[in-house]
TrEMBL record:
Native organism: Lujinxingia sediminis
Domain Histidine-specific methyltransferase SAM-dependent: 17-315
EC identifiers of the protein: 2.1.1.44
Record's protein name: L-histidine N(Alpha)-methyltransferase
Domain of life of the source: Bacteria
Molecular function per GO: L-histidine N(alpha)-methyltransferase activity
Record SUPFAM superfamilies: S-adenosyl-L-methionine-dependent methyltransferases (SSF53335)
Enzyme class: transferase
Length: 316
């Protein structure tokens, strides 16, 4: 089964077509990009603070600890191109150590997120040239004309690469290698394979925020596409599929039911699931292989002492 898991919103007609397509398959699914409406983005930010959700704080600690070494590897005067608008502490920790960065270029489909990001970064680094690009970074876009010609350093934190199917991840990274050119670099955060109990706890938090994040997708479909999902008729489930090496988020129908969408009726049997997200986890050798297959050379990688998360510095 091939799933489109790119993390971006689309116009309403596309949204309806994707929902109908996903919900009429034998294994129902909804692309995870639709999890991120305003409320979904807020819930995701709350997830990042949860005690069970180790990736954010572990990657931040790695970035803070190794930023001087990373900066040394990158060298002088790179353009830092962040895929996704990060106004977060990880980007700032990195920028604080980069030697004379040429420009910071955040790429995001949401102009709202970009303005927030530009404000946050510019207030801490008033001298830095910031050139935001409004674009779906998984699609076709080009780098802005840069005042200073400098090498491209792509930055893709958060293990968002885990939300791509493996073949899509390879194509995406290869496209970035081509865009970065001969002298390019990539700093990327990658979540690691580990005890399934840790993984399942991270996606089934006790406060129920991930469940709310997952169910919010049905609320969004009701609001934007005039559907009639009753949220209490579905429950959140996240399981680690060891064979596929991924956490799967599901919404399980708690009874036999029919859902009305414009022009369609969708039947659910009790216990039937909708897959709403895949989050692939990599072993070190697996990600090294993925990097190589997508025309990147591994220069260095760093892992936290508990072996939870990895940060990779790659060059073309
Ligand atoms: C954005 N992405 C890397 C998160 C993940 O862990 O796959 C999204 C998420 N889904 C549930 N919790 C967090």
């Amino acid at each position: 089964m091939s799933l489109d898991t790119t993390p971006f919103p689309s116009p309403a007609s596309r949204f309806l077509a994707d929902v109908v397509d996903g919900l009429t398959r034998s294994q129902k699914y909804l692309p995870c990009k639709y999890l991120y409406d305003d409320r979904g983005s807020q819930l995701f930010n709350a997830i990042c603070e949860l005690p069970e959700y180790y990736p954010t704080r572990t990657e931040l600690a790695l970035t803070e600890r190794f930023a001087p070494e990373i900066a040394q590897r990158i060298g002088e005067s790179a353009n830092l191109i962040e895929l996704g608008a990060g106004s977060g502490t990880k980007t700032r920790a990195l920028l604080a150590h980069l030697e004379d960065p040429a420009a910071y270029i955040p790429v995001d489909i949401s102009s709202h997120e970009l303005s927030r990001c530009v404000r946050a970064i510019s207030s801490q680094f008033p001298q830095l040239t910031v050139k935001p690009v409004v674009a779906d970074y998984t699609g076709d876009w080009s780098l802005p004309r840069l005042a200073r010609s400098a090498r491209s350093l792509f930055y893709f934190p958060g293990s968002t690469i885990g939300n791509f199917e493996p073949a899509a991840a390879r194509d995406f990274l290869a496209q970035k290698a081509a865009l970065a050119g001969n002298d390019g670099a990539l700093l990327i955060g990658v979540d690691l394979k580990k005890d399934p109990a840790i993984l399942e706890a991270a996606y089934n938090d006790r406060a129920g925020i991930t469940a709310e994040f997952n169910l919010n997708l049905l609320r969004r479909i009701n609001r934007e596409l005039n559907a009639d999902f009753a949220l209490h008729d579905f429950r959140h489930q996240a399981v680690y599929n060891a064979e596929e090496g991924r956490v799967e988020m599901h919404l399980i129908s708690v009874r036999d039911q029919q859902i009305a969408l414009p022009g369609h009726t969708i039947e659910f049997q009790k216990g039937e699931s909708i897959i709403t997200e895949h989050s692939y986890k990599y072993a070190i050798q697996e990600f090294a292989r993925l990097a190589e297959d997508s025309h990147w050379r591994t220069r260095s990688f760093w892992i936290d002492p508990d072996g939870l998360f990895s940060l990779w510095y790659l060059e073309t």
